[in-house]
Amino acid sequence: MKKIFLLVVSALAVFAIYSYTDRQDDKAFKKEALENQMTALDGSSVAFKDILKKYKGKTVVIDVWASWCSDCIKGMPKVKALQTQFPDATYLFLSMDKTQENWKKGIEKYDVNGEHYMATDGMKGIFGKSINLNWIPRYMVVDKKGKIALFRAIEADDTKLIETLKTLK
């Protein structure tokens, strides 16, 4: 019985580690993510692929967040430190807020500096599912060619995040 229990616990641990670390096959966004419509600050609708095109040739740090997310808010000083350490990167904030009003208030209240868009269908929508979004904040890095250099980090001071940005300078 102990062996079965240990086997189950071990399998769960491996699954948990795998689900929270980068996977080597996640180097490009899925078609659903690229075609997903986001809302710009001016209220217009724009496909995620067009957002990425706008920043091609630049290193892009994507911060998936929401104004209601306490971990996102607690992490903002770390994001500001990251912006200071890597000022040449573009910081793209993708909000999972439920309303544009809350999203815009959150940007102002928490002094979030960067490029801003809002997912129109929340964390469990098309975009969230396509990037396996199970927690926010979520940080991703896209290289200058538009490929995903880092698929997942949940802290803005994550060693993998910082090392990835250093290699892309």
From TrEMBL:
The alphabetized list of GO BP terms reads: cytochrome complex assembly
Q: State the CDD domains in the record.
A: TlpA_like_family
Alphabetized Pfam families for the sequence: Thioredoxin_8
- Give all residue intervals belonging to the Thioredoxin domain: 27-169
Signal sequence coordinates: 1-21
UniProt GO molecular function: isomerase activity
**What is the annotated localization of this protein?**
Cell envelope
The record's GO CC annotations read: cell envelope
**What keywords tag this UniProt record?**
Cytochrome c-type biogenesis, Disulfide bond, Isomerase, Redox-active center, Signal
Main subcellular localisation: other
From the Swiss-Prot or TrEMBL record, give the protein name: Thiol-disulfide isomerase/thioredoxin
